Amino acid sequence: NAGTEADVYISVYGERGDTGSRQLLRSQKLKKFLKGQTDIFAVEAVHLGHLYKVVIGHNGLGSGNGWFLDKVVIKDPITDLDYTFLCHRWLDQGQDDGNIARELTVTDASTFPGRQELELKREETWAAEKWKFQKGNMLQFYNRLTHGFICLSPDSRVDALGDKKNKYGKVFFHVDVC
C-alpha cells in the first residue's frame, strides 16, 4: 500500500522562479506510482537556474491514495546537473503526520560546493583511523577529570571504573569530560 492512484502534482523552485503546480501525467512506466517503482516524467518549463526546492503532493482522491515517497530527482538538461530532494515519508491523511503534500529542499552537491572536498577529507580520515576499530583491538580513553582509563573491549564490554593504572599501557584517545 505504498503506491497511489491519486493525481500527483509537483512545483519546482529555482533561483529564477518556479514552474507552478504541474500534474505528473505520463510516466515511462505503464502504471505510475507503484510501490518500489521509479517513475520518470518530462516536465516542460523555462530554465529556472539552480533548483532549491520542490513541493509535491496528491489530491487525496481514489482508493488507496496514500503514498510513500522516497525521493525526487530532477535532471536539468541544460546544465546536466542532478538535483536530489529526499523525502522518505508518507503523503497520506491516515499515516505519518497526515499531510498529502511535502515541501522538500535540495540535498545534492550542487547546493553544497564544498561537499565533495568534505567527503574526500572524511574518507582520508577514516582510512587513517579505521585500524583502531578492527577486530581484537582494545580502545582506551583517558578521562582527565578522574585521571583514569575507560576501556572498550572487542566483545563490546565497557570498563568505566576509571583505574589510574591500566594493564594495556597504551592510550589511544584523550577526551575531556565536562
UniProtKB/TrEMBL annotation:
<dbReference type="InterPro" id="IPR036392">
    <property type="entry name" value="PLAT/LH2_dom_sf"/>
</dbReference>
<protein>
    <submittedName>
        <fullName>LOXH1 protein</fullName>
    </submittedName>
</protein>
<dbReference type="InterPro" id="IPR001024">
    <property type="entry name" value="PLAT/LH2_dom"/>
</dbReference>
<feature type="domain" description="PLAT">
    <location>
        <begin position="1"/>
        <end position="105"/>
    </location>
</feature>
<dbReference type="InterPro" id="IPR052970">
    <property type="entry name" value="Inner_ear_hair_cell_LOXHD"/>
</dbReference>
<dbReference type="Pfam" id="PF01477">
    <property type="entry name" value="PLAT"/>
</dbReference>
